[in-house]
Amino acid sequence: MAAPLAPLPSFSSHARAVVRGLREALSEVLGALRADPGDHQDVARKLGLAKNLAWKVTKIIQEDDPAQALEQMPGGPGLRILLERIDHSGVERSMIDAVHRAVAEYERLIELHSGDRATLEMMTSELSPSGSSQRDEHHRKLLFQGASYVWGVQARVNLKLGIVGPGAEPGTLDFASVNGVFDFRRIRQDAGWVMASRRSTNDDGTPMATSASEPIPTASL
Questions:
Q1: Which long-range contacts (CB under 8 A, 24 or more apart) does 168-171 make?
Q2: Is 121 helix (H, G, I), strand (E, B) or coil?
Q3: Residues 6+ apart with CB under 8 A from 185
C-alpha cells in the first residue's frame, strides 16, 4: 500500500522559509570569508563577483521584506556564477552544501507554486504589504502595454460622462452621454477602433425601444 502524499506547504509559509534559508546560508559563507554583508563591494572582492551580482546577494541578506528579497534572486546564469564562486571560495563544505540546498529549495518553490519566476514575482505580493503598491503599478503598466499590443491601439485617458434627468413628458427620462479619448494612437496602422457605441436593454436583457439620438446643441456647451 502506497504511503499518502505529504500535503504541499502553503505558498506564504514556503516562500518565507526559502528566504530564511537563503539568508542563513549566504550569511554563513560571508561570515567565514570575513566579508561585510552590508558592503556589496567587499562581497564582490571576497567572492570575485561582479558588483551587480554582489549587490543582489547583500539585498537578499538584508532585506526585511521577503517579497523584495525574492525579487533580488539572480537569474539562471547569475546563480550558476554565484554557486561556482562559493564552491571555490575555500569555506567549509557544509557551508557550501547549505547554499546549494537553499538554492534548490528556491527552485522547488517555483516548481511547486508558480511554474516560472515571472509568476512567482506576481505571487509575492501576498507576503508583505510593503512595496505592494509599486508592484501593483508595475503590473498594471505591463497589462496596459500588453493590451495595447493585442488591440493595436492605446490612449492615455478614456473619458465617459453620463447624465440622466427627467424628460419633458411624464414617465420619461433624458440621457446625455459624452465620450472621448485623449492621446489616442494606433500601434498598428491597420487597427480599427469604435470610439463610442450605445445599446439599451430592459431588465430581462431584451432590446429597449428608445427614441433616436440627438447631438447636444453646441450653444449649450
A1: none
A2: helix
A3: 153, 154, 155
Give the pLDDT confidence of 70-96 residue by residue, as tens digits: 989 999 999 999 999 999 999 999 999
pTM of whole model > 0.85? no
Record the cell numbers describing residue 212, joined without a space.
433616436
Cα dist. 202→36, 54, 162 in Å? 70, 64, 18
Query: Residue type for 90, please?
Result: G
Q: Distance between alpha carbon 116 and the CA centroid of its chain, in Å?
A: 13
- Per DSSP, which regions of the chain are E strands? 153-154, 157-166, 173-182, 185-186
Mean of all residue pLDDT scores within the chain? 87
C-alpha cell at 8: 504541499
Q: How distant is the alpha carbon of residue 1 from its chain centre? A: 43
Question: pLDDT tens for residues 7-58?
Answer: 677 889 999 999 999 999 999 999 999 999 999 999 999 999 999 999 999 9
Q: Which residues of 1-28 are buried (b: 16+ CB within 10 A; e: fewer)?
A: eeeeeeeeeebeebbbebbebbbebbbb
Residue 131 has pLDDT above 70, yes or no: no
